[in-house]
Design brief:
Elements: E1 11-13, H1 20-24, E2 33-38, E3 47-52, H2 58-70, E4 74-77, H3 87-103, H4 109-124, H5 129-134, H6 140-159, H7 167-175, H8 183-206
Parallel strand pairs: 1-2, 3-4
Antiparallel strand pairs: 2-3
Helix pairs in contact: 3-7
Amino acid sequence: MDELAAPSSILASSTSFIMASVFSENLKGRARCLVAHPVNPPHLVPIVELAPAPWTDPAVVERARAIYEDAGQVPIVLRKEKPGFVLNRLQAVLLAEAFRLVGEGVAGAEDVDKTIRDGLGLRWSFMGPFETIELNAPGGIPDYCARYGASLSRMVADSAGGDPFGRETVATVMSEWSGTQSADRVKRLSDWRDTRLAALQAHKRGSQRKPS
C-alpha cells in the first residue's frame, strides 16, 4: 500500500491491538501511517481511536480526525502508543473483574451482566467515567478521589494477579449461562443488539447537550 497509494493518501489500519510503530517503522511513507480503530458495529457505534506512531505527521492525524468527523464518527486521538489503545484496555479491566467475581463465587454471571446493563451501562451510555464520578461528590473529581480513592485502591490491589480467563473460571461462567454457544445464536443476538443500538443512537442525537 505504501508503494502503490498516492503520496497524499492516509494509510490507516483498523487493528484493535497492534501499534502503528510495529508495522510502519521501515516504510518510506511512515509519516502517513496510523491506526484508526473502529468499534463493532461501526455504523452504530461512532467511536474511532486514532493512534499515531511516534513518527506520524500531526497534520495527517488532524486530516484523519476531520474525515471521521465529517462522516459522523467520534474520533479520539491517543497522545502516545499503548497496546490495545483505550477502549480495549478499559474493556479488558472490566471483563477481568467480571470473570473474577463469577469465578470467586461472589455473584452469578447473569447478575454481573445485569449490573452493567441496568446499572453502570445506563450512566455510561451518555457519561464517561470522569463525568460520572464528578457527580458523586459535592466537590467534584478531586473530592471524590479524596473520599474514596483509598478504598478503590485497596479493591484494585485485591483484584490483581492470576488469570481471570482461565479454564476453570470460564467453565464456571458457562455452567450458569443460558443458551447454546453457536453462530446462529450470535447472529440472532447481533441483529437484536444492532436494532437497540440504532434506537439508542437516535435518542442520543435528539437529546440536548449537557449543561456546562
